Amino acid sequence: xxxxxxxxxxxxxxxxxxxxxxxxxNNTYLYVxxxxxxxGNIRLSYADVNGNGTIQPASExxxxxxxxxxxxxxxxxxxxxxSNRSEAAExxxxxxxxxxxxxxxxxxxxxxxxxxxxxxxxxxxDPLTEKYxxxxxxxxxxxxxxxxxxxxxxxxxxxxxxxxNLVIAVQGNPNGDTNPKxxxxxxxxxxxxxxxxxxxxxGLGKIMNFDKFKGTQVGVYASSQSENTKKDIAKSIRDxxxxxxxxxxxxxxxxxxxxxxxxxxNENKDLKVNLLITIDILDEWDDDNIPPNVKTAHNxxxxxxxxxxxxxxDIEAENPNVTTVTNTGLNTNHTDIDNDFIDVYMDIxxxxxx
Length: 354
Hints:
Blueprint: E1 5-7, E2 10-16, E3 19-23, E4 29-36, E5 42-46, H1 57-60, E6 61-64, E7 98-100, E8 107-109, E9 114-116, E10 121-122, E11 165-171, E12 191-192, E13 195-196, E14 216-222, H2 228-243, E15 248-254, H3 256-267, E16 273-279, E17 289-290, E18 294-302, E19 316-317, E20 324-330, H4 337-340, H5 342-351
Parallel strand pairs: 11-14, 11-15, 15-16, 16-18, 17-19, 18-20
Antiparallel strand pairs: 1-2, 2-3, 3-4, 4-5, 5-6, 7-8, 8-9, 9-10, 12-13
């Protein structure tokens, strides 16, 4: 239930930012911390069981995991068995997915399908397999096991090693439904009624023109009401920062896409964003504060929006000494605001590309 796991109506554990909290039988709680490698694999779980402020390796290391590249666990050493651990919570191991050992299944349950880590292949066909007919539909992580993790239908950008500017645009929600069951968030992978949604060439799709700039890479994403878009964009930015730590990140979104971006920068405050452009944010009841990891934010909204219509929302900087915010009302409507003023947005982006 939203991350809180129960057994026979009794709370067992729930996650926190860097591990999980186990409920003990005496209704006390043990905070367990986990070390993860760069692919999200949980390598070490530990807790200050006796509350003395230090970790005793012999008694307070709860579990240690080492893996072969495709996820099979090493056996025969570092096999810690500690009664203070949560058996249920420790099932989340390789790439933070649940490992099912009941009935001898021995597979990992990813979001959309099950994975056999002994052979490095899924047991179910990729739901996007027709768009990637040059891959086996059972491949895991594109066979990129050192630098990439399995994204389960999410399609991040492949960042070029010479990219200096990463520009990401997130379109509004077409007809209120991007059919998120396929999990695809890049526009070219989004499917609605078995048709490709494509890119709005008169709106934010024009951002693709910046691909012609040397050292600049552009991605256009579909918005979603799930976590898919936010996670996909955050992964793309992290990949970019791994290649170019001081690279220039520019984000622009319309409607639900703008809301996705505001939530993403708030949920990933370690990601530095140079420029954020929001266009008529869909959810005007959100508390849209821009965190200090965003250097500059420009917000355009529909000045004609009334109480019962979309738009008309200002944004604010959490720390005005770090983040500069500009709010600009435009005489248009929610549907056309991205297309009517696309040249304005593109001019701002061009002035921030180096």
